[in-house]
Every structure is written in C-alpha cells, then in structure tokens.
Amino acid sequence: MNGPLFALPGTCCAKSTYLLRTDARDVRRGSRALAVGFATILFLALPIILRAQTDCLSCHADKTMQDASGHSVGVDADKFHASMHGSLGCTDCHTSIKEYPHPEQPAAVKCDTCHADQTSAIGGSIHAKASAHPCTSCHGDAHSIFPKSDARSAVYPLNIPKTCGTCHASETLAKKYGLQNVYATYMDSIHGYAVSKEGLLVAANCMSCHGSHDIKSHKDPASATSRVNTPNTCGTCHGGVKDEYFSGIHGKDIEKGNKKVPVCTDCHTAHAILHPTEASFRMQSTPICGSCHKDQLATYRDTFHSQLGLLGGYVETARCWDCHGAHGILPASDPASPIAPANLVKTCGRCHKDANASFVQYQPHANPRNRKLNPALYYTRFFMNLLLWSVLSFFTLHTLLWFIRAKIERRKSGATGETKHD
Fold this sequence. Notes:
422 residues
C-alpha cells in the first residue's frame, strides 16, 4: 500500500492546494512561453516583411503609377504602414506574385483568405454583385484601411453616410439599379443632422439600420429593414419607444403576423425622418394616420380641430396622436387607453384646462351618415338637408313661376299699348 493508512487532518486539503498552485504556475509559464515564441517569430519575420514591402514600394510608391487598364496601382507608403494591413507582406494578399517582374495582370486579391465570415455574409447580400470588388467599394483603398473606430476609416460612424452616398447618391447608379437617391433625404433628417452637424457617434447611420456585410433587400423577410423586423431594428436605439409600440394594438398585431399594420417607417418614413415637434411633421401626421384609417380621417376633417388646422394653419391643434397616443396605441375599451371613458377628462384637459364630464361628451369622430352609430345626428342631418332642399325647391319654383308671369304680363301690356296707338 502506497502512502500512510491514516492521514492527519488537513493533509488532503493541503495537498490539493499545492497541486492547484502547481497547475496555475504551469499555465502562467506556458502562456509566457507562447507569448515569447510569438514575439520571437514576429521579430524574425519583420525584417523579411519590411524588405518585401521595400522591394515593392520601390516602384509602387509612385502615386501616379497606373496599370495597362488605367487603374491606379500607386501606394501611399505612410498610410499603408499605419493601416491595419501595414504588418502584412505584399504577397500575403497578392499571392500570384512570386517574382519580379511580375505578370501585368496579377490574380485578384481574395479577402476571404483572412476575412472568411465577412466574405460569406457579403455573398448572400444585396451587394454581392454590385461591383467587381465589393470590399474596397466600402472600405476604400486596400492599402489604407483603418479600424472602424479610427476617424480616418471609410466606415467610421461619421463617415458612413458619405461612403454609402458614393453609390446611393449617384444618378447613374440610381438609373442602372432602380435605386432611390436617399443620401440627400437622410442628410436633411434628424439622424443625418445629428451625424453631420452634431458629430454624434451614437446617431443612426446607414449601418445602424441596414447592417454592414449581410445587407438584404427590405422585401427579404430576413432583412433588418423588413416590415416585421423594423420595430426591433429601430428599437436598438429607441428601446423605450419599442416597448410602448409592442404594448399597443399595432405592435401586438404585427407580432401575430399581420403585415398590414403600421411600423416605424410608415409614420416616420425610412430616411427623411423629422423631429415630431416640428411643424411640418405635425401638419402631415393626420394624413399619415388617415392613409389607413380613412373613415376616421373623413369624420375628423368635419371637426373644429381639423378646420382650425387646415384654414388657420395652427400647429398646436389636436392631431390624432395628441388624443390616441403615438406608439402605445390602445382601443377605447382598454382602461389604460387615453381615450377610455374614465380617462377622457384628463386627456382633453391637456389642452382644455376646464374640461369636465360634460365637456367630454363631445364626439370627435361623429358620423352624421351612420344611423346606427349616431342616430340623433343622422336624423338631424336628414331633417336639415330635407329642409334645405325644400326651401331651395320652393323658391326655385316660385322664381320660375314669377318669371313666367312677368313674361305674360309684359306681352299683354305690349299688346294694349299698340291698340291705344292705333
């Protein structure tokens, strides 16, 4: 038998602790050895890489250099050495070049050698066939690519609109691919202003909504900007609004798969987004709601609120969302709804300080053409229209008969005058 038959108290624990400490020391030694080994390899390889770069730059440092097709093949050495690819050798990317002089048309660089995930994502995106080399279309010259957190990068948050605008503000490409020129509308929006004027890194740019590599058409159900996914995409920044929306009738319906209900872009648009307190947004908000709620829009236009807004242009006149809410819209049968009977005095009281139970009997969507919904108003309208047509018909007939009588009397008076003359 190995070891003592009886162990002193604490001996096993002490042994375990010793083994754990030994293992920890071994792990630290291994990590140090790995780091030293990597540093050694890098140190030994660096002169080779720099020598290869120097050999290539002896020609390509000329920024005016072009290939047979007229494409620039000049490299800014300072930018390249400062870039993310500065530590690589030229042939790490240009793998077909083995010697000098090299072929006039070397093989195209394959970014997927290092960036396999990103290349795979682009392959399934709407940009897969947008250009011969989609990577450099967005990231810029491969010899001067910087991290996205670097202000020199083409995909730095404040630079993204300009980068995307290279294509999406081009009239030529717009006609070729049937694109909308969204760059100008975005730059005039609240998001574009925050990026271009305020310099806010957290403001929504193109990538915030559409993604970076795996960008799909808004018609694709998997797209971040599809109807079903739009509330969650916008909710990435507008978390509180997202919660309100999904607590309302619109959000609940879209979760059930109803794609006809409005989402963020139906009311706010996708790119020309205005601040909700702006006069232009308030003036257009009612027609936006009315594009779905046509009956309610028609009855609203008959009211004092609408007439005041249309004729006088008063911005502060009550619009749909002043009463119904903006995002967490609930039916009147819901006790939490601002238009629930118990909440009407409070809701109307936001504008009408003296509102009381009698005041809120006013019906903002009363329909005089609906006998079941508003019978008193229906019959009042019917009686007034009948009275109006009766009066108009009576006086039209009266005027016509008066005219006939006048013509007859004029003829009689004319005949009498001729007899007296004879």
